[in-house]
Specification:
GO terms for molecular function: nucleic acid binding; zinc ion binding. The protein has 247 residues and is mainly alpha-helical. It has 11 helices and 2 strands; from the N terminus they run αααααααααββαα. A two-stranded antiparallel ribbon has the order 1-2. Helix 4 runs antiparallel to helix 5.
């Protein structure tokens, strides 16, 4: 009696508070809610008749709705077998999947859970296939790598070093110090040095005014943000040395 009263609805607790016999309490509850089977059964039968696999977007939604209806039918005393579940699923496939439905029939499933497991695996594989196709449609070229020399580094660089031109103030200090100090690195393997811009050539001064890189000569970035390949850097540095000799 304590167990029944503990799990009973709060509204029913006060109604059957004076009942002391557990058998009497059980019979009263049975008489009150026995008619619910007659109310639920017509709706459950109608839902079972209208249930179609093609009306659901995913297999999981169909499976959830199917077992919800089956549980209501079993509560009302109806018997639902494995063959009924399999036939219900086969007959409600979409007409475009007629060949797929025949293949599942020929597979000879005897348990509904095996059929639904196979459908879930197929659905997951199809989603991955569509996702890969949308990322790169048929006949499209692969994505090109980003050219590092054309990138703009507005924040702190990846490499850290000592000096006035390093860190997050690198782009800020670069243009201001063109008239006094200049950063130059003819070879990346050599030691980095500072030198006065008065000793630089006229071509380098022109490039500094335009904002060119002192390492590779390209526009759009400074020396510390330069990612140009080494063989291009060597050609540019050799070109600068030849101009110095001519001058």
């Amino acid at each position: 009696l304590i167990f029944l009263r503990h799990h009973i609805d709060d509204g029913l607790k006060y109604e059957y508070l004076t009942v002391k016999n557990p058998l009497e309490l059980w019979q009263n509850l049975n008489d009150r809610f026995e008619h619910l089977k007659a109310v639920v059964l017509p709706k459950a039968l109608n839902d079972w008749a209208q249930l179609r696999f093609q009306d659901f977007k995913t297999v999981s939604e169909y499976n959830f709705t199917l077992f919800k209806i089956v549980s209501q039918l079993k509560m009302c005393g109806e018997v639902i077998t494995e063959d009924m579940l399999l036939e219900k699923t086969y007959r409600t496939f979409h007409v475009s999947n007629m060949l797929l439905q025949q293949q599942y029939r020929l597979h000879g499933f005897t348990k509904y859970r095996k059929l639904i497991g196979s459908l879930l695996i197929t659905e997951q594989n199809n989603e991955l296939l569509l996702q890969n196709h949308e990322n790169r449609p048929t006949g499209s070229a692969p994505l090109q790598e980003v050219n590092a020399t054309s990138s703009h580094f507005g924040g702190r660089g990846r490499e850290r070093g000592r000096g006035r031109g390093s860190g997050r103030n690198q782009n800020f200090l670069g243009p201001r110090n063109n008239n006094s100090m200049k950063w130059q690195n003819p070879d990346t393997k050599q030691r980095q040095k500072w030198r006065n811009t008065r000793q630089s050539s006229k071509d380098e001064q022109t490039q500094n005014r335009k904002g060119n890189c002192n390492r590779c000569g390209m526009e759009g970035h400074w020396y510390r943000a330069c990612r140009t390949a080494k063989h291009w850097v060597d050609l540019y540095q050799a070109f600068l040395k030849e101009n110095d000799k001519r001058i």
